[in-house]
Amino acid sequence: MKRDVISILDIKDDFEKIMDDAISMKKNGYEKVLNGKILAMIFEKSSTRTRVSFETAMHNLGGYAMFLSKNDIQLGRGETIEDTAKVLSRYVDVIMYRAYSNKNMRELADNATVPVINGLDDQEHPCQVAADFMTIKEEKGRFEGLKMSYFGDGDNNMAHSLMLAAAITGMKMEIVSPRKYWPNYYYIDKVRELGGEIEIMEMNENAGKDADIIVTDTWVSMGDEAEKEERLRIFNGYTVNDEIMKRAKPDAIFMHCLPAYYGYEVTKEVAHGKQSVIFDEAENRMWAQMAILKWVLNLL
Ligand code: CP
Ligand code: NVA
pTM for the complete prediction? Predict the structure, then answer.
């Protein structure tokens, strides 16, 4: 069976192996094991990190990456996802897809005969969370027993993938979010099935207490723009600031997948402060994806 990475759950059995390979390549160097391999990258939405990190990852490993904006290919004019998947599979070895909907992501994966990697959809962002957990491993040396507190939109792609990864690795998860944006039940059930510990709450004076990791994401994800005004009103009061960082452990780290909107989900002081690892996370996209690309091609 081909190896897709649509959810972080798809790599759960090899999670530590992928993390350790990414860290080892960063530390000790790597071979051009993807020599001659080609990655097609379909983007329906904007991207800085995902595009550049996948392109450099393929180049580093000796392969080639092709950028396909939805508007430049026939998909944007109504060619079906099924036909796009079948055609691309005849040319390339792997497809990376950044999509509006998880349904379309799954349709592409079901119809492609080559592995498909989710470069973000409305439900999950597994590559970002692989990079984030690589960063946690570098910083803390372990996952088991750590506490992660996530502030903001508890029902977005980042919250879902982080919850699942925390459950996979034995980390305790706290979601601090307005009730309207508590996580989708599907993901809560998955966390429970994995035996994960999760607490979901609205903002309160203990939120973030004794956390090892404080994390947030934008209040207005790509695709949510029509609700911007309402979201900014409802999320008011959920900004990660110095006061929240003080409730966490003294050696806690601050994480954000970026792009960040300073003054909304986080203050610039925290995001660019001593405890922040946001630019390590961005760098680690490349290393984690090098390991994921090897994994989907059965080289890991
Ligand atoms: N974090 C992330 O996926 O960034 P881009 O949208 O720039 O790819
Ligand atoms: N939740 C954000 C992540 C951006 C990388 C979004 O979907 O826009």
Answer: 0.97
